[in-house]
Amino acid sequence: MKAVVFEKFGEAPTIQTVADPTPAPEGVVIKVEATGLCRSDWHGWMGHDDGIRLPHVPGHELAGVVVASGSGVTRWKAGERVTVPFAVGCGRCFECTSGNHQVCEHQFQPGFSAWGSFAEYVAIDHADTNLVRLPDEMEFATAASLGCRFVTSFRAIVDQGRVTPGEWVVVHGCGGVGLSAIMIASAMGANVIAIDLTDEKLDFASKIGAVATINAAKTPNVVKAVKQITNGGAHMSMDALGHPTTSFNSIANLRRRGRHVQVGLMLGDHARPQIPMDKVIAFELEIRGSHGMQAYRYQAMMEMIRTGKLKPELLVGKRISLEEAPAALMAMGGFEGIGIGVVTKF
Ligand SMILES: [Zn+2]
Ligand SMILES: [Zn+2]
Fold first, then answer.
1. Beta carbons of 20 and 2 less than 8 angstroms apart
2. How remote is the C-alpha of 156 from its chain's centroid?
3. From ligand 2's centre to the CA of 218, what distance in Å?
4. N or C terminus of the chain: which is more exposed, having fewer CB within 10 Å?
5. Which sequence spans correspond to the domains of the chain?
6. Spans in the chain with pLDDT lower than 50
7. Domain 153-289 has CATH 3.40.50.720
8. Ligand 1 centre and the CA of 113: distance in Å?
9. Which stretches make up the Enoyl reductase (ER) domain (predicted)?
10. Which ligand has an atom closest to residue 336 CA?
């Protein structure tokens, strides 16, 4: 099969012909029909993820058709249209059996712990626990865009952030994660403030539900601006970018008993950012992480998509071919364009 391969961290990936994957006893092989481009792939390529062994095939936001399944798989057979969360739970450890597959102790991550979906085929382990059937009307590009950023935002806003109608929600960073979070929080009935450095992304954020925007490049004190708009601070705030400044601001702009959820990855030099711990104590603030979403929670999100409350298809950006993927991956370190880029031609 054709695949995007990198031999060394930080060196240009190339298109290579490699062996077709075979299914693990509890796994399947999926013919990839669409795979999203994500900043996490860029982090992996840069060498920020110590789980990656070289040579490596990136890609973890995928949708496709099952072509083969292992002898132990009971729920899935060839021909079914599926997607999968990026953190695939083993189904057996304490976290999995308590319903928290997203933090499984032995998680399988395509594009990180194993070869990913920037290829014609990808092998996914623990299929019975983790595969999600696609609604007939959902196209593969939309389904692929759910896999990492949209589901992560759904869990961050709904399950971890516990957003309720009428609350003020602030989203720092309007890339794929941020725009997803704005759409989801707004559908949950919250008043959403979008923050970014570009007016173009902020205009788009307004179109999908933000009631106010702040251009951080033109605003000397972002925290003060949030407190003014919200009359005292946000109930829930999210760092969707993953940067010491946005993380700090997202905590500092909370009102008393506010909740911060960190979704943007903090790796390399950014792994240990400053936290306004004085405020965390005095205001009883909550700080939570959010890491993917369990396959069984997809159903709630899929129902909101089916009824038109959520429209992830609006967030699908550029569609490219596998041949264009290496250049697009290397460019992810800079600022992204609007929406989620998806490889749809293999
Ligand atoms: Zn597990
Ligand atoms: Zn991702």
1. no
2. 10
3. 29
4. N
5. 2-148+293-343, 153-289
6. none
7. yes
8. 14
9. 10-343
10. 2
